[in-house]
């Protein structure tokens, strides 16, 4: 009897496999390191090994996969971090498991993080959500009517690479300049801070450090340092401008803020909404902003949600 | 036997009623003027009169309504042009027709124009589309997985009021400054042109006129006037920047350009894409741009699509 679902989040460093019963309960979870050798060709086989060691394959109803790259209609376009180009995980994994009946679906990990927060996290009960993950880069996920939105090229939600007219027009590792990611991700906040300090003569405890983290900027801002607050205000204003555009495009019920920067809690939400609210009409200002609650497990939960 | 569907587009000036069979064929259509007296309280009754004069109510399967204002979950928030505040058209119209079995759905007219183009127009065969209507104002419509997206406050697609950092920071009749509508709608192009001419010393045949239309700007641009081209380039660059954000938020299969400005055809699409393509990654540049084909009938078709 097929009585389990699996939610699998393939990251650049590790892979999380979640075992769920058909009533949405997480029964167990397993981690394995991501083997990126030979252009990631062992990844699916090593996942299958773990599954085979734990379960009888014929008991699995469905498997959802989250991957760090663009996906549309269950087909991966590329995952640079894994060494993958175009990849049909559905066919490959059915062949590896030698089971054609298992339901397999695939989506982008940032979109699945949003799905996870709707499934088991802070957005439970909502059906339209936009999640922005402020980590090393910026990820974004879109859920409309309870369904994950991929987009034709798999870039739905990928607001990290929207062009903003930022003060310094920083270059992005996507090859363009002025991407939101260059000023509002964790690394972006640091870059913005360094530019800001270089272009200003104001004193700040940040000047004590030759290098510092985004957390350091946030910590000094929380302590009341004016320059650290000006930097974060600038960074979150750029983000807020993009989120206001999200509102006028899909008008979600809720914005979910995730990633390392979201550990700053309401402090960071207050920074965002201070700039967001004046950009939208008063009757839209009811949109919720919440901090994500599932952390690194969001993608695993979202992958299971995908096959529900 | 219930064998007809009706698609009804309620505009500020006139109302279009389309009669469809259940195989999606338009059998007939009727127009009536919009009676805005007494805060539009006669509108639904006058529509019902037309329907009663043409059809037996028990033969109607469903009625879709498009209205010029924000709508979510079939509830109208307001239609300033009609004099309406919050309105439950579904309940009211079922009561007026004295038939509780008819399926009635309601959506925003710009969203339904997009649905119409998918149903019977240039986007037929696509399931994810973003339509921008460049008329007196700017309307926008979002279709994802073949379904109309309202948004929680009914403003999904309403990109006319996204804030852009335009050169002149023009005031918008929504009460804010710097809305896309102030520079890229038909009236916006005229406003932008006048500002541009005032801030420039370059000669242009546009200077012969104390007042002119957007069509005049486009006509001179087509004839090769440099200033008219600079004005339109500026205007369409603002639009392209917002459409690039649409791509990184929902990544539609196709952008549909409608409204009066779209009569300029490929000339206007070339202006938009010249700025759009450099803002998105190369592999996304396959997104289609097409001119809408249904004109003022799009909303009527879309209203029928809504109840399919």
Secondary-structure blueprint:
The structure is a homodimer of 308-residue chains.
Chain A: E1 4-10, E2 14-21, E3 26-33, H1 37-40, H2 43-54, E4 60-67, E5 71-72, E6 75-76, H3 89-97, E7 103-108, H4 109-120, E8 129-134, E9 138-144, E10 147-148, H5 181-184, H6 186-198, H7 214-222, H8 226-250, E11 254-258, H9 266-276, E12 288-291, H10 298-306
Parallel strand pairs in A: 1-4, 4-7, 8-11, 11-12
Antiparallel strand pairs in A: 1-2, 2-3, 5-6, 8-9, 9-10
Helix pairs in contact in A: 2-3, 4-10, 6-8, 7-8, 8-9
CATH topology of the largest domain in chain A: Nucleotidyltransferase, domain 5
Uncertain residue segments of chain A? none
Number of strands of chain A: 12
Beta strand % of chain A: 15-25%
Summarize the main sheet of chain A.
5 strands, mixed
């Amino acid at each position: 009897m097929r009585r389990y679902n699996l939610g699998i989040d393939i990251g650049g460093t590790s892979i999380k496999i979640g075992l769920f019963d058909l009533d949405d309960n997480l029964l167990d979870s397993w981690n394995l390191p991501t083997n990126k050798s030979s252009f990631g060709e062992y990844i699916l086989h090593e996942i299958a090994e773990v599954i085979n060691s734990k379960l009888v394959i014929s008991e699995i109803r469905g498997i959802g996969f989250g991957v760090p790259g663009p996906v549309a209609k269950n087909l991966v376009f590329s995952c640079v971090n894994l060494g993958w180009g175009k990849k049909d995980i559905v066919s490959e994994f059915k062949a590896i498991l030698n089971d054609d009946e298992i339901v397999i679906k695939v989506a982008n990990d940032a979109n699945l993080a949003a799905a996870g927060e709707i499934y088991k996290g802070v957005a439970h009960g909502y059906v339209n959500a936009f999640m922005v993950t402020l980590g090393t880069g910026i990820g974004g996920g879109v859920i409309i009517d309870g369904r994950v939105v991929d987009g034709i090229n798999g870039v739905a939600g990928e607001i990290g690479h929207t062009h903003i007219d930022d003060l310094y027009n920083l270059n992005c590792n996507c090859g363009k300049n002025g991407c939101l990611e260059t000023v509002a991700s964790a690394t972006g906040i640091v870059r913005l801070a360094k530019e800001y300090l270089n272009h200003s003569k104001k004193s700040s405890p940040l000047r004590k450090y030759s290098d510092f983290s985004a957390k350091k900027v946030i910590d000094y801002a929380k302590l009341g340092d004016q320059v650290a607050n000006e930097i974060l205000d600038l960074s979150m204003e750029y983000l807020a401008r993009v989120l206001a555009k999200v509102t006028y495009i899909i008008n979600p019920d809720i914005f979910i803020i995730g990633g390392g920067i979201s550990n700053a809690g309401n402090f960071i939400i207050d920074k965002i909404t201070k700039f967001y609210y004046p950009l939208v009409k008063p009757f839209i200002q009811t949109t919720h902003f919440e901090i994500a609650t599932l952390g690194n497990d969001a993608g695993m939960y979202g992958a299971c949600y995908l096959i529900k």
